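TA notes, week 10

Several of you asked for a full example with nothing omitted. So below is the full record: structure tokens for the whole chain, then the designed sequence directly under it. When grading your own attempts, check the secondary structure regions first.
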């Protein structure tokens, strides 16, 4: 089924929203409200862009399907969460700091952030590919 203008607009809005929300909250998009304490890397921007684009494609694809064919939403939610963890500043995340110390986050979590990004992109890519093949 070919996507409509409304479906495309919804997907573009979701992609832009994910980019802005994750970018502002993680400090990748410079803003006066938040200062990132970990250096920004090109990989952070790549995962932010990929997560945003794949979220937009997922919404466009899901909006053009029947409700019976919409399995795999949990993978998309996990991909979105993984995409956020991939770009989030480990020492700036209040939830993670409440659970772990900042030294534990920098020692164990920070090196795993690229893995979260790969898993997030993989989950999104897999569900989009699987639905496209149907």
């Amino acid at each position: 089924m070919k996507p409509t203008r409304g479906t495309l607009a919804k997907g573009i809005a979701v992609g832009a929203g994910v980019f802005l929300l994750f970018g502002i909250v993680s400090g990748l998009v410079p803003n006066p409200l938040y200062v990132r304490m970990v250096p920004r890397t090109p990989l952070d921007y790549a995962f932010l862009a990929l997560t945003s684009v794949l979220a937009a494609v997922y919404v466009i694809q899901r909006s053009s399907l029947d409700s019976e064919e919409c399995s795999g939403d949990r993978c998309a939610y996990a991909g979105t969460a993984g995409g956020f963890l991939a770009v989030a500043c480990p020492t700036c995340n209040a939830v993670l700091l409440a659970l772990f110390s900042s030294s534990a986050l920098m020692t164990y979590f920070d090196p795993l952030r690229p893995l979260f990004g790969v898993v997030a992109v993989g989950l999104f890519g897999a569900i989009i590919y699987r639905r496209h093949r149907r």
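DSSP finds six helices and no strands in the chain. Use that as a sanity check on your answer.
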